[in-house]
Specification:
The structure is a single chain. The chain folds into two domains: 218 residues, GAF domain (Beta-Lactamase), CATH 3.30.450.40; 238 residues, PPM-type phosphatase domain (Phosphatase 2c, domain 1). It is 37% helix and 21% strand. It is built from 14 helices and 18 strands. Strands 1-6-7-8-4-5 form a six-stranded antiparallel beta sheet. Strand 12 and strand 13 form a beta hairpin. Helix 2 packs parallel to helix 7.
Length: 493
């Protein structure tokens, strides 16, 4: 294994040999005019020269070798430009990593590769592969850190500018585990580069593999290095955006229950899929509240609005408001949980007093598990679905407006008794819109999907939740990725 450190790295400009195509972007230095240009005329200008036999020697015409080098240089510049342009159009961290790997492989003439980002502690993260299946990536993860080529490229100090080995299986500088995997996976040569910036240090490391013992030409190395220099600051921005997004989503999930209560005769399950804050204009909640008398309060709802013209930019504020409203609802449920109308009425008063620019839809159900008795009320929310042995039906709550829209919200509650084996589904609008082109069609499709679920799925609330999400189209397929998705299932045993 050969390492080139920054202090001994190849210069940014090299002279192309006559048989080697020139590299792109100023990497090729052509002979100066004083050596390859035409002979100067007496007046100082270049011109033709007459030979002894009377023919004209046109010294201004470039030689075939120079023409080949110019053509090679143009081809390299074009290739590098195409790959960097493709990278500039890429959105999202995962797509950026895939693009870097694929473009690097194309520039180096390799068929396979892997890339890891640097974890905050300094070690390699989850690998991303190009031309490698999951089993191969898993095998490569078993290489000890002290033998890992990628770990070397991620070092803060003494980081090599590049790594290359003509034959991994026979390279004595390679650890035994990697030599073994090279034989098993059919790797020949390998070439690796770090992706780093002066401001951020090492960000990621990439390693490309050849199927046979081989190594890239000097020109290919220069092209790949220049590509990684361009890719590194773009990758730094994507990593920062991904970190912020994951932190934000973790905070949003922290506003929701981390576990569901257990009660005799009642099994609960839930699914959440929050939309990104850059796309959503609201925030949804779900909750299962154990009450002092052994009953359970179940609720789902959605907060939206931030004044006139509220849009995606209002999503962070809506998420914070959702946390406050859910916390208040829990308090009201403990105080007067058996009266869902009073719970939602108190919540509406709080919303109008403390969140005057917002509205909310909600369903609150008070459940007695042993008696299987359910009392619920809804405020402008999607009707719950009761799934039984003979199908699935909507629980029709009375027609009512969302909270915060009228001078005084009021609606009667609904009381019914479930059969043993029934499952009550509470969900937010995001799931209904994902299941159909309109809200009404989505609700109908959701009810039908629950009714048609296999029996072994219907008797398990967790499997039923997973089934309903699986049978609905992906959110991007229906343009419904701007709404949070909440689903809460309660089965009576």
């Amino acid at each position: 294994m050969n390492e080139s450190h920054p202090s001994t790295a190849l210069p940014s400009t090299t002279t192309a040999e006559p048989g080697e195509p020139g590299c792109a972007g100023g990497l090729t230095v052509l002979d100066p005019p004083g050596r390859t240009g035409p002979a100067a005329a007496p007046d100082g200008t270049a011109g033709d020269r007459t030979t002894d036999n009377g023919t004209t020697d046109d010294r201004t015409a470039p030689s075939a070798a120079v023409q080949d080098r110019l053509a090679g240089r143009l081809s390299d510049i074009t290739s590098l430009h195409e790959h960097t342009e493709r990278l500039a159009r890429t959105r999202g961290l995962a797509a950026t990593l895939d693009t870097v790997l694929a473009s690097g492989a194309a520039l180096l003439g390799a068929r396979r590769g892997m890339l890891v980002t640097r974890l905050p502690g300094g070690g390699p993260g989850q690998p991303v592969g190009h031309g490698l299946d999951r089993a191969s990536l898993g095998a490569l993860e078993t290489v000890p850190t002290e033998q890992s080529l990628l770990a070397r490229l991620l070092r803060e100090r003494d980081r090599p500018a590049q790594l290359h080995s003509r034959d991994l299986a026979e390279d004595p500088a390679i650890g035994a585990r990697l030599r073994e995997l090279a034989v098993h996976l059919g790797f020949g040569g390998a070439f690796g580069l770090p992706l780093a910036t002066p401001e951020d240090g090492p960000l990621a490391a990439a390693l490309w593999f050849y199927d046979e013992p081989a190594e890239p030409t000097e020109c290919q190395r220069e092209l790949a290095r220049h590509y990684c220099e361009i890719a590194s600051p773009l990758l730094a921005k994507q990593l920062e955006a991904d970190r912020i997004s994951r932190t934000t989503e973790a905070l949003r999930r922290g506003l929701l229950p981390d576990r569901l209560p257990q009660a005799a005769g009642l099994r609960l399950a839930a699914r959440i899929a929050p939309a990104g804050l850059d796309r959503s204009s609201g925030s949804d909640w779900y909750d299962a509240i154990p009450l002092p008398d052994g009953t359970i309060g179940l609720t789902v709802g959605s907060v939206s609005g931030d004044g006139p013209g509220a849009g995606p930019g209002s999503a962070p504020g809506a998420a914070a408001a959702m946390g406050r409203i859910r916390a208040a609802l829990r308090a009201y449920a403990v105080l007067e949980g058996e009266d869902p109308v009073s719970v939602l009425g108190d919540l509406e008063l709080l919303l109008k007093t403390t969140e005057p620019t917002r509205t909310a839809t909600a369903v609150y159900a008070w459940v007695e598990p042993e008696e299987r008795r359910i009392t619920l009320a809804g405020a402008g929310h999607c009707p719950p679905v009761l799934v039984g042995r003979h199908g699935a039906e909507f629980v029709e709550t009375s027609l009512s407006a969302p909270l915060g829209m009228l001078t005084c919200w009021e609606a009667p509650g609904v009381e019914f008794t479930a059969e043993r084996g029934d499952t009550l589904l509470l969900y937010t609008e995001g799931l209904a819109r994902r299941c159909g082109p309109t809200l009404h069609a989505g609700q109908a499709n959701l009810r039908r999907a629950a009714a048609d679920a296999p029996r072994d799925v219907r008797i398990d609330p967790d499997r039923l939740c997973a089934h309903l999400l699986a049978v609905c189209p992906a959110p991007e397929a229906v343009g419904a990725d701007t709404d949070d998705l909440m689903l809460l299932a309660a089965r009576f045993d």
